[in-house]
Structures are given as structure tokens and as C-alpha cells.
Amino acid sequence: MHLLYQIVSGVFFIAGLGAIIWMTVRALRNSENPAKIIAKWAFTIPFAFFCIWLASRMGPFGPFVVVFMGIVFSVMWTPQIAEIISRPITNLFDGGTEPPVPRPFYSIALARRKRGEFQEAIAVVREQLAKFPKDYEGAMLLAAIQAENVNDLAAAEVTVNRFAAMPDAPPRQVAAALTQLADWHLKLAQDSYSARMALQQVIDRYPNSDVATAAAQRIAHLGGAEKVLLSAYDRQAVPVPEGIKSAGLRDTLQQLVPAETDPAKVIDDLVRHLAQHPVDTEAREKLAILYAQHSQRLDLAAKEIQQLIDLPGQSSKKVAYWLNLFADLQVRGGADFDTVRATLEQIIERFPDLPVANLAQSRLAHLRLEIKGHQKGPENKTLGTYEQNIGVKYGPTYGSSSRL
Predict the structure, then answer these.
(1) In terms of Cα–Cα distance, which of 12, 81, 11 is closest to 40?
(2) Which of 19, 57, 246, 279 is deepest in the core (most CB within 10 A)?
């Protein structure tokens, strides 16, 4: 029993000594005045030994010495002990004693930019970039001042390319920077070629990714953007056809109705456009709708929808939208229940744990009513004769997929 008592006492002594050492180290680390803590310990240790020795010598008055020692120690150490106990709670509100993560500050540069002090703003941004060379916000702020305020697009291009050339730069930040550079080329210099080269860098750096698909989509629409921008500087004469004379004396106004755009011509234009820009999702979606609604060719529409789905980096929401769109086209085109159900079930198979699967399941529950609502009675219709070998001519470049 005596041996067990010694073991337990030794454990408690070691634990207490370790707690004292830990509190001392923590107090020294967090204290604004470590010398004060060291001075307190220099007084506490010899004073404690003196009081214990004195108490052992004074017999019945020994407890009074111990009480006096406790009072002295409580006055000395209460602030440190209270801080150790309350620190975990106060850390929840003030962030504790951990130093803040160093980050660049551009408020001065932004203020000087607003005052028109562009060179001074550039100098401030460069100072911050010298400390944080990989900061995307600073690089783009510097490039924006150079391109938009100093009219030095070449310097802005150098800044963007320097940031994009960093080996560990995040792909999305690089893509955003190069896309912004392309916008500056279009807006400030009306230079569609340089804009295309900037976007092509995204495709070359990150092939088969969502940022590459987005860049290719922008390239596909550069021609239209250039025409809009150039129209502000080079306004062309707009030919106005001569109006129909004596319009009020006519028996019918049918001749005054403008001619509708020929869907067959629109299909042909979209096919030629997609041959040059195969990842233009907007054009391919329009083509699928025209195939289904104008040409009554759900098989060609299925190929276009499958091409959209197979594009790399497409989100679950976008893929589900295209499958729902094809289901709409099938319903309007007179497809049977099993055919449309197979299309909607693809959403559930691809994304079983996402909300789009629940929406597809809900639509399946009402699919028969949806199909019945689009069914029409027998009508006498004279269908035209359409070319059967229409559509985008797929080859090895595009691959082949026939799930839809």
C-alpha cells in the first residue's frame, strides 16, 4: 500500500510539474512582457521554499505561513491564470494571439487611381507585388491601370503574360487574366487577332478542360463582337429598301408582312459555323432545335445534343439542361413514352445524388400526361420533301456517340 501511494504521488507530482512548465512556456510566449514573467518565477521559487521551511519550523503556526504564501502567490499569479482560463473563449471573438496572415493591400493604389495619379498608383501596386509576386488581384490591377488609364496595352499584356507564366498559377485565374486581356484587345484596340491569340493560350495551356471550352466559345463569337466594336468607329451606310407604294389602297396586307428567315438557310449557316468552331455550344444547341422542329430529324438533333454533353468540363446543371431540352424535342416530335423516359433516366444515372436527378424523377412521374398534352388529332398535312443527308458531317475529329 505504501508503494502504491508513492507511485500515485509521483505521478501527480510529475503531472503538476509538467502543467506548471507548460503554463510558464505559454505565458512567456503570449506575454507582451516576458521579462516580467521571468522575474515573478525568480521570486516565486525561492520564496516558496523559504515558506515551506519556515512552516516546518514554526510548529502550530506553520499553517498561517502557508496561508500567507498562498495570498502572496494569488496576488502575483491571478492575472496570468485568469488569462490562461479565459483565452480559449476570447479567442472565439478576437482571433487570439495568432498573427494575421500577411496579405497585400491596394487601398492606397485604388485611391490614387481615382484621383488620376496613375503612375503613383502603379508604383504602389509594384511595391505590393514585390512582396507578393503571385497575387492575382495585384497583377490584374496593375494591368488594368496600364491598359485602361495609361493607354499602354503592350505593358498590360506583359503583366498578364508574366502572371500566366508562373508555374503554380491557378488555371482559373490564368484563364480569367487572359480572357480579360482579350477583352482589352477588342475594346481598346479593336484587334480581334490579338484577342484570339490570348484566348488560344488558354486552350493550349489547359486542353480538354472547362476553361478551354469557354475560351473556344469566346473565339467562336469574336467575329460578331468585332463588328459591334468597329461599328462605333466606322459606321457603314444602311441600305433601306423602297417602301411599297399605295399600301393603304390594297385589298390585303399580306405583301407587307416581312418574309421569314428560311430555317434551311439558318441550318446551313450553323453547319458551316460549327465546322470552324465545333465547341460553340450556343450554335450547336440552336442547330439541334432546328433539326428537331423544322426538319423533323430527331436523330440529327440527338447527335448534336450528344456532342454538347461530351464536351469536357460541362457542369451537371448544363448536361441536365441539354438532356431535358432533348426530351422536350422528343415530346414535341411525337416520340413514345419509352424513348423519352430513356432520355430522362440518363440524368438520374449520371447525377443520382444531385437535385437535377430529383427534378428528372418528378418529370418522369408526369411524363405520360406531358406526352398526351402534346398529342394532336389527325390533320391533313402535306409535308415537304427534305434532303435526308443533312447536318454536320461527323468524322474522326468529332468522334461518334449514339447513346441518345
Answers:
(1) 81
(2) 279
Residue indicated by cell numbers 400526361: 369
DSSP states along 298-359: HHHHHHHHHHHHTSTT--HHHHHHHHHHHHHHHHHTT--HHHHHHHHHHHHHH-TTSHHHHH
Q: How far is CA 34 from CA 28, 75, 85, 171, in A?
A: 5, 18, 19, 47
End-to-end CA distance of the chain, in Å?
83
8 A C-beta contact, residue 348 and residue 361 = yes
The pLDDT tens digits of the residues spanning 7-62 come to 666 666 577 666 667 766 766 666 666 777 777 777 877 877 777 777 777 777 77
Environment class of residue 367 by beta-carbon count within 10 Å: exposed (0-12), middle (13-18) or buried (19+)? middle
Residues in contact with 283: Cβ distance below 8 Å, sequence separation at least 6, in sequence order: 220, 270, 273, 274, 277
Taking only the tens place, the pLDDT of each residue in 205-258 is 998 888 888 888 888 888 655 444 444 445 556 566 665 666 555 555 555 555
* pLDDT tier at 179, thresholds 50, 70, 90: very high
- Least Cα distance to 130 among 117, 139, 119, 143 occurs for 139
SS (H, E, C) 79-145: HHHHHHHHHHHHHHHHCCCCCCCCCCCCHHHHHHHHCCCHHHHHHHHHHHHHHCCCCHHHHHHHHHH
- Torsion 168-171-177-181 (CA) sign: positive
Given a cut of 60, whether residue 89 has pLDDT beyond it is yes
What grid cell was written down for 72?
502572496
The rounded distance, in Å, linking the Cα atoms of 192 and 177 is 17
The helix/strand/coil state of 167 is coil
